[in-house]
User: Which sequence fits this backbone?
């Protein structure tokens, strides 16, 4: 079963202008998809890969993202850590540009949010935002209704917009297209890549899966994902390798083959290009960063 179907999510805001959602893992709600509303999204548990527009990166507990309208996104928990199912992995709110416009019309001071909302069209990650604070605000939005929910939401959004460490994930000047029939075929291909990344999968096979000619597929794949086909496959494989380098003691040559590369030299070259360091340097760096945290409870 595809984890991406349906790949376009219609959000009905007829009854509420701020929609709250939460779910655990695994769930069929996790899929590569887009929608016409903004999404402020907190990951509360597990580690994995964040797919936001053309960005493929890592996430962990406390990761907080703001995703703009029509920007494809998904968060996939790694299986490397052999996670058991979790009851709560995601807390999020969705809201529309129309709602923000109405608020700003009545209260011009809220126009200070325009800049962060504009940048969110390429996706923003709020680095080192306090997870406890974020979860408390989102729970407050969840438990409130009516005007109180709106007030709590605006308070949290304003707080987030002023966070000093914000990472732009994709080029926010790129207008990712709204849903059309071509996106369904592209979603099937993305689904296949993210779940079968270690297998050989040619552009011609991908085009056939999407029901397009290779030329049309190449053009549309880059339009909908922000990356060329081969680049996207490489990024997914390197992302999986990063997880294995952190979570296992497997030899680099073993990881190279398990993520789909056929020789170590090619793997090292692509890893260096994507991560700006060698696989062994990446493993050393991530483990040195984790060491103080792991040792903090020995006092």
Assistant:
């Amino acid at each position: 079963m595809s984890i991406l179907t349906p790949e376009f999510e219609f959000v009905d805001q007829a009854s509420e202008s701020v929609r709250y959602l939460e779910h655990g893992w695994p769930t069929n709600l996790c899929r590569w998809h887009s929608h016409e509303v903004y999404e402020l999204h907190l990951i509360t548990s597990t580690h994995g890969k964040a797919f936001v527009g053309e960005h493929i990166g890592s996430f962990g507990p406390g990761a907080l993202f703001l995703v703009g309208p029509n920007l494809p996104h998904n968060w996939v928990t790694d299986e490397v850590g052999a996670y058991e199912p979790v009851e709560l992995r995601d807390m999020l709110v969705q809201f529309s540009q129309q709602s923000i416009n109405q608020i700003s019309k009545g209260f011009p001071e809220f126009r200070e949010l325009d800049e962060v909302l504009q940048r969110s069209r390429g996706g923003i990650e709020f680095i080192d935002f306090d997870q406890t604070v974020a979860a408390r605000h989102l729970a407050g939005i969840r438990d409130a209704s009516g005007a109180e929910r709106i007030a709590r939401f605006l308070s949290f959004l304003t707080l987030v917009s002023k966070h000093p460490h914000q990472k732009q994930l994709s080029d926010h000047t790129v207008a990712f297209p709204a849903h059309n029939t071509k996106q369904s075929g592209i979603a099937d291909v993305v689904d296949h890549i993210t779940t079968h990344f270690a297998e050989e999968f040619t552009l011609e096979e991908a085009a056939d899966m999407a029901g397009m000619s290779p030329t049309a597929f190449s053009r549309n794949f880059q339009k909908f994902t922000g990356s060329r086909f081969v680049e996207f496959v490489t990024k997914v494989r390197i992302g999986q390798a990063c997880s294995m380098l952190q979570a296992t003691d497997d030899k680099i040559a073993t990881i190279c083959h398990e993520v789909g590369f056929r020789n170590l030299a090619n793997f090292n070259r692509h890893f260096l290009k994507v991560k700006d360091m060698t696989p062994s340097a990446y493993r050393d760096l991530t483990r040195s960063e984790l060491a103080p945290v792991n040792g903090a409870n020995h006092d």
Observations:
- The chain has eleven helices and nine strands.
- Residues 1-14, 292-299 have pLDDT under 50 and may be disordered.
